[in-house]
Design a protein that fits this description.
The protein is α/β, with parallel strands linked by helices. It has 18 helices and 13 strands. The protein binds uridine-5'-diphosphate-xylopyranose. Uridine-5'-diphosphate-xylopyranose binds next to helix 2, helix 13, helix 14 and helix 15. Keywords: Glycosyltransferase, Transferase.
């Protein structure tokens, strides 16, 4: 056993990679999964991470962790403007990241680093890697279609679609069919100029990198991947879905409430609506009540994740109508955070009411679960439109009102339309499974990625 691990260490020698995640749940999960994927291909993995939102290193004894201080105040960390947060992370992490990296590179005789792989959102790593003469690749954790439309915000501005006017929300965006103006990847809480600046920084740093790794697969997003490959002029590696190679549960920043699974065990086959809006999105008090009553009136069993911070009240129980929970009895189960991948693969789950973050969207597709789409911002809007109109594996919730919610849930759970959606999602699930098998598109792309990285050795 000991000899075996010494052998493995010898084989990995000279094949060290450095990964840096954007410290947000939806970005940490795929970065850690990528680390595991590349480790399984014989690379040694070093992770530099901020102290803020750090994954637990004891879950990854096979990785080497280094921590930097991100220099953010508590108020800055919890601010709702996600664009401002990403910009702050970029400005405050540059120096500590540089110092940490310089120190690691000074140990070059011990083990050279082949390349840095950083999240597209961490565009500051471009200047640091250039200065320290380290090859840099990037990981895009969202879908290719969303990133493609995101990277075209300037063009959309020139064409007059942006800034968005309320009277134009339903207008089709001819250059990005089937998107409508309201599906464009914007964020209401942020000034358009602030977003354009962020997009420019991300796109420029990506184009200047030595390659782009995607958590997606050809069969799902071939047109966008092809266009991005041409436009960006750098090697493209769609090797997803990552979570089917390595689950995300260990990199969860919040503790996952396992009571979900025993509750699901008691429910009928495909009877439950699973409701979760990811790690950032929040609803106001009125929307919260509409969701609660919509779920109750649908008469379907439901598992609802109400994360701390996902409503305006610090304790969501305060927002619940009096007597609501008692009236529901065993039909509804509410938790603060769920083991989402396990939940989606449970036979009792019949639909996923989601915000369409990319991880949630992929996880739902890979478990063959049709979606009710309620996007909040940026890529979620594009993903939702594609889920409903292109891949045909979900429906958009048109209004956040109890009657509409009730009708949409009944439609997906009990009517013919729901069966059609399920048929299509099972079809794509099959493709997602096949692309990872020997000879499949992601399997081959991973082989190309490994060769590409090894070519940095000389
Ligand atoms: C963020 C952005 O909001 C999203 O638009 C972007 O695509 C990725 O970054 P987030 O909102 O957290 O992500 O959503 P998502 O991408 O779906 O990631 C959430 C992750 O948390 C998933 O891997 C999911 O399995 C996990 N999760 C979610 C849990 O483990 N438990 C839960 O209760 C909810």
């Amino acid at each position: 056993m000991e000899n075996q691990s010494i052998n493995q260490m010898e084989q990995r020698k000279g094949r060290r990679l450095l990964l840096f995640p954007l410290p947000l749940q939806g970005h940490i999960n795929p970065t850690i999964q990528l680390g595991n994927i590349l480790h399984s291909k014989g690379f040694s993995i070093t992770i530099i991470t901020t102290n803020f939102n750090s994954p637990n290193p004891s879950n990854y004894p096979h990785f080497d962790f280094h921590f930097i201080n991100e220099n953010l105040s508590e108020d800055e960390k919890s601010q709702p403007n996600i664009v401002a947060l990403v910009q702050l992370i970029n400005s405050r992490c540059a120096q500590p990241f540089r110092d940490c990296l310089a120190e690691l590179l000074s140990n070059v005789l011990e083990e050279p680093i082949l390349c840095l792989i950083s999240d597209v959102g961490c565009y500051f790593t471009r200047a640091v890697a250039d200065e320290l003469k380290l090859t840099r690749m990037v990981l895009r954790t969202s879908g290719a279609t969303a990133f493609f439309s995101f990277s075209a915000l300037h063009l959309l501005c020139e064409k007059g679609y942006l800034p968005i006017q309320d009277s134009q929300l339903e207008k089709p965006v001819a250059e990005f069919a089937p998107l409508r103006v309201k599906d464009l990847p914007l964020i209401d809480s942020c000034a358009p100029e602030e977003l354009y600046e962020l997009v420019d920084d991300m796109v420029n740093a990506t184009k200047a990198s030595s390659g782009l790794i995607w958590n997606t697969f050809e069969e799902l997003e071939q047109p966008a991947l092809a266009t991005m490959g041409q436009d960006f002029g750098i090697p493209n590696f769609p090797i997803g879905p990552f979570h089917k190679r390595f689950p995300a549960s260990l990199s969860s920043l919040l503790s996952q409430d396992q009571s979900c699974i025993s509750w699901l065990d008691k429910q009928k086959f495909r009877s439950v609506v699973y409701v979760s809006f990811g790690s950032i999105a929040a609803v106001n008090e009125t929307e919260f009540l509409e969701i609660a009553w919509g779920l109750a009136n649908s008469k379907q069993p439901f598992l609802w994740v109400v994360r701390a911070g996902s409503t305006s009240k610090s304790d969501w129980l305060e927002t619940m109508p009096k007597g609501f929970l008692e009236a529901l009895g065993e039909r509804g189960h509410i938790v603060k955070w769920a083991p989402q991948q396990e939940v989606l693969s449970h036979p009792a789950v019949g639909a996923f009411w989601t915000h369409n973050g990319w991880n949630s969207t992929l996880e739902s597709i890979c478990e063959g679960v049709p979606m009710i789409c309620m996007p909040f911002f940026t890529d979620q809007r594009v993903n939702a439109r594609y889920v409903a109109e292109v891949w045909g594996v979900g429906v958009q919730l048109e209004k956040r009102e109890r009657e509409v919610i009730e009708r949409t849930i009944k439609g997906i759970m009990m009517e013919k339309e729901g069966e059609k959606l399920r048929g299509r999602v099972l079809d794509i699930k099959e493709k997602a499974t096949r692309c990872l098998c020997q000879g499949g598109s992601s399997y081959q792309s991973l082989d190309s990625l490994v060769s590409h990285i090894l070519s940095f050795q000389s």
